[in-house]
Amino acid sequence: MPDATTPVAALKAAIRRFAAARHWDPYHTPKNLVMALASEVGELCDVFRWMTPDESAAAPADPALREAIADELADVANIVFLLSEHTGIDLSDAVEAKLKKNAIKYPPPA
Amino acid sequence: MPDATTPVAALKAAIRRFAAARHWDPYHTPKNLVMALASEVGELCDVFRWMTPDESAAAPADPALREAIADELADVANIVFLLSEHTGIDLSDAVEAKLKKNAIKYPPPA
Amino acid sequence: MPDATTPVAALKAAIRRFAAARHWDPYHTPKNLVMALASEVGELCDVFRWMTPDESAAAPADPALREAIADELADVANIVFLLSEHTGIDLSDAVEAKLKKNAIKYPPPA
Amino acid sequence: MPDATTPVAALKAAIRRFAAARHWDPYHTPKNLVMALASEVGELCDVFRWMTPDESAAAPADPALREAIADELADVANIVFLLSEHTGIDLSDAVEAKLKKNAIKYPPPA
Fold it and tell me: With contacts defined as CB-CB under 8 Å, which chain B residues touch A94?
């Protein structure tokens, strides 16, 4: 199911089930999950660190790089979803609220 | 609209429109976005760095901390959505594919 | 005292004294310090995220940017020194040992 | 040579020589190095993410963990030294200046 038809809650439920089946919940405090997030983002940084910005824009057209990026992006997304689950913060609501704040902080050009 | 009824694509479209209205697209190469992601995750680390794991689990019950966490989590999520947009990698597909790989790497206990 | 004449141990002692005078030692477990490190590195990422690599190379010539980079680099270095203090891992020994390993992993071109 | 007798400049020179022998200098723009730093800090986060703070304090007493931590800490330190080299920012001066600023921001308790 692609992004067009997948509710955010479905992805959250999928990763939550995956973790619960492995009895990982006791490790998933917000502090630990944020550390895990920094670790997974570090993996993405590893993929891109020596590329120029142009090379990074071309990277998704290379099948091996595309898979590496997709794998690491999924890892990052899964931790974001687990953080939403374990803090009880609805991601869609949080994004909507933050975009409203940012619209004031960064007004669009006239 | 909460996670239960918001398709991932709707959040991706919202942040994409926000950035386009500010002419930020030229800055949003995958390399730059990954650096931005590390920066935003650093903000989350800042919130939790001196807490114990138990304190971090209790943090979302404190209104001021809850808002701080929601704000930073939204910032992280928005960069993840922009990375999905600018790499053309469908997040739901990537998560599904990665969970399948991880199910082999980490089989559930018998 | 510049890098040419400052022993690593002098910088470690300076930040350790600073933290001890503020009774911060109980917070400085390796886990917390590593999270603090991710937070401080996030600040450096914030400075450079939208720059091109060329702009980043020119940045230290701009006085305001130079001070911002120096401040964040010092924050990162101080956490590295605190990690060395609180783990009892000698930084110079660790660097020497790692360079020997890396010399095998990445042999210089013939 | 341990931290007690190793000038910061000696470590900087060692990693600079290592990189130069491999012709890595063209990749070592500040932007790329900061991304590399986020990647290496991610490796440290990976070591500690599921530990309690107490477990993290005990980790350096375990030989295998101690070596893993020393390896990753050395990687982080080496990027910090390369950043100092490639920005021309003296690390000892930057640390001294930042501690003076922080002493005002965080005065010691009376």
Answer: 70-71, 73-74, 77
